[in-house]
Design a protein that fits this description.
heterodimer; A: about 525 residues; alpha+beta; eight-stranded antiparallel sheet; five-stranded antiparallel sheet; 19 strands; globular; disordered C terminus; B: about 130 residues; mainly alpha; about 55% helix
Chain lengths: ~525, ~130
């Protein structure tokens, strides 16, 4: 790939800036040559890699070095693209929205600054992964659990800042955030919530401080750089009982979702309630080719064979109980009666299936043990890559069935399998449709791009909006949030131009562009 | 780097390793084994350990057969190959940044993998890409 430069920056100015960055963070932590920069590209790109290619990457070790980097960026008007671990491969990994940005890689800021057993929280820097925090807690015999996204290499802060979810009762990650340190584009540093009061003892136990609460402004946005985060952790419960209920028919997602809603609202299902469709359930254990070697989506006859071989359902519901045995026994009685209303429901526990890939890794996730098993889903197709399409809805059975049919019909039209799941957090339902494709197959990649664009438009017409997305769809999805002539987008731009008048922080993130820097692609 | 170019690079590395194999392989030192083992456990084992539930092991089994699916049981992996795959990625495996695996750790990791976790001496190859 030819050398990439920041937008409107000459080679000589770029070289000058690189020299200044080296002085700011040390020569070993500025990367401009291809062998070092390659890892900041989108490994699963379905369009040209150059569309999101960075010109360089810089890795500061602390806030002071970030401030120096910002000074260089402001001086030359070079945009930065901030990542913590850059490991969400379904949404673009560490690659910038706009080519030529310098990636601000915060992985070196990987300290776990505090673990408070009494009040059950931790304070972390951006580079701390789920594996890091889990190992740290286990090494000190902590009684606290973490909540992790499915791939354990993900960042505690990065996933939360992108409003990702996990699988324990603390699975709504942003809900667990409590206290941020934020560096603004001008280099000033602020503490949010109670942390703004010098000497406060409640910086990580009470979120809101007083007055305007700003933390949400810095999630899925580009108004500042969060450099420290308090996060609430779940105390280890006296008992834990993961379970799986399988359902034999596609249409079962409708009554299943209707059953889930009141159980979630009453907190009888305390954690993320996950309904996994057959193909996705199977994909951690088998490849598509083991059942079907033709082109296009797997036929239903092969799917039925796979379902029988794996002893799973067309829908597979995972959740867990937490607490004293007597309490779990009482809760289970209600849950079992509820799920038995669906004909053909079958029940499984850890002793039955904990040794299997699918049950095993979900049982780990629901108790906050990070692992990488879900990455196995990429083996569904050879040389697999994936991208997520993730519309939100209220918890409603008819909607779940409609969205499933909506996604499956369009996936089949473009030759892909439907591979998805529903995750009910509390009152909301994340529909995660993971599209698998061969990362070197040009036709499949073109189809992925067309399929997702089509689904974004059709979903918006049906009243569904996505909760986050890949770099290539940020603008299109932002355009579907358009009430009152795009009033919210205008507010976002006003905030952007006030806090970051030079447009140096992550231009284009979530469709938020600075007034001074247009989009180039 | 495009996949085709990477395949060529990997082939060249294999040829280079064969040429270097004329030099006597050296045992991997205890310090390198310790550092490489730690890096392997942190970055590689979650996908490449033996048994079910490991994405990389599953991928290698599907492509090369079960007998070549567990990295530390392989006898045909040169340390330069490990370094290139880690820095450039290969198929579904993404590349790893210098901020994740340092050059020194990558050298130790590559020696650890190429030696099967210290079971064999390793022919020396070049520095990290």
């Amino acid at each position: 790939m030819p050398q990439v430069f920041p937008p409107d920056i000459s080679a000589s100015v770029f070289d000058e800036a690189i020299g200044e960055l080296r002085a700011a963070v040390g020569p070993d932590w500025v990367f401009a040559q291809e062998a070092r920069l390659n890892a900041y590209n989108d490994h699963f790109a379905f369009r040209e890699v150059s569309l999101h290619a960075p010109s360089a990457a810089v890795a500061p070790a602390n806030v002071e070095e970030i401030q120096k980097v910002l000074a260089v960026a402001r001086k030359h008007r070079i945009p930065l693209w901030t990542v913590s671990t850059g490991r969400n491969l379904a949404y673009g990994s560490a690659a910038p929205r706009k080519p030529g940005c310098i990636v601000l890689d915060l992985k070196r800021m990987n300290r776990i600054l505090e673990v408070n057993e009494r009040h059950a929280y931790a304070v972390v820097e951006p580079g701390v992964s789920y594996f890091d925090l889990y190992r740290h807690l286990r090494a000190r015999n902590s009684r606290l659990w973490i909540d992790c996204a499915a791939p354990g290499w993900g960042g505690v802060m990065g996933n939360l800042m992108d409003r990702g979810v996990g699988y324990t009762p603390y699975g709504e990650h942003f809900m667990a955030a409590c206290g941020m340190q934020i560096v603004l584009a001008d280099g000033s540093v602020i503490e949010s919530g109670m942390g703004d009061q010098p000497g406060t003892a409640a910086a990580h136990t009470y979120k809101y401080g007083r007055g305007a609460w700003i933390d949400g402004l810095f999630t899925q946005a580009n108004f500042g750089i969060v450099t420290r985060l308090g996060i609430h952790l779940m105390p280890e419960p006296p008992g834990y009982r993961p379970y799986l209920v399988t359902f034999p028919n596609e249409e079962d997602i409708e009554p299943l979702t209707e059953i889930i809603r009141p159980l979630k609202l009453a907190m009888l299902i305390p954690n993320a309630a996950v309904s996994v469709e057959l193909n996705l359930e199977a994909s951690v254990a088998v490849t598509k080719a083991q059942y079907y070697t033709g082109t296009g989506p797997m036929p239903d006859s092969a799917r039925r064979k796979m379902m029988a071989d794996l002893n799973v359902g067309m829908w597979n519901f995972y959740a867990a109980l937490y607490g004293p045995e007597k309490l779990m026994d009482a809760q289970w009685q209600i849950l079992e009666e509820s799920f038995r209303q669906i004909k053909g429901a079958r029940f499984f526990f850890e002793k039955d299936r904990g040794h299997e890939a699918a049950f095993g890794y979900r049982a780990k996730l629901m108790r906050g043990i990070p692992n990488m098993t879900e990455f196995s889903i990429l083996n569904w197709v050879p040389n697999g890559a994936h991208v997520g399409f993730s519309p939100m809805a209220s918890v409603d059975g008819a909607t779940a069935l409609e969205q499933y049919r909506f996604a499956r019909e369009r996936a089949h039209k473009y030759g892909f399998d439907y591979t998805g799941e529903y995750v009910v957090g509390w009152r909301d339902m994340h529909h995660i449709f993971v599209i698998f494709y061969d990362r070197d197959d040009g036709e499949q990649k073109r189809n992925v791009y067309q399929l997702v664009n089509e689904m974004i438009d059709d979903a918006a017409a049906a009243g569904y909006g996505e909760y986050r997305t890949h770099l290539d769809f940020m603008d299109r999805i932002a355009g579907t949030y358009s009430w009152n002539d795009g009033a919210l987008a205008k507010l976002n731009r006003s905030i952007k131009d006030t806090l970051d008048p030079g447009g140096i922080l992550s231009p284009g993130k979530s469709g938020i562009w600075p007034g001074s820097g247009g989009r180039s692609v | 780097m495009r996949a085709g170019v990477l395949v060529v690079c990997l082939c060249l590395i294999a040829l280079g390793a064969a040429a270097l194999a004329a030099e006597p392989p050296k045992p991997v030192s205890a310090d390198v084994l310790r550092a490489g083992g730690e890096a392997f456990e942190k970055w590689c084992a979650p996908c490449h350990a033996a048994g079910t539930g490991h994405a990389g092991t599953m991928a290698l089994a599907a492509r090369l057969g079960k007998e070549k699916s567990v990295l530390l049981e392989r006898t045909d992996i040169a340390d330069a190959y490990v370094k290139t795959v880690v820095r450039y990625g290969f198929r579904m495996m993404p590349p790893f940044k210098t901020t994740e695996i340092s050059d020194a750790d990558l050298d130790a990791l590559a020696a650890y993998v190429a030696s099967g976790g210290g079971k064999r001496p390793v022919a020396a190859t070049g520095p990290s890409p």
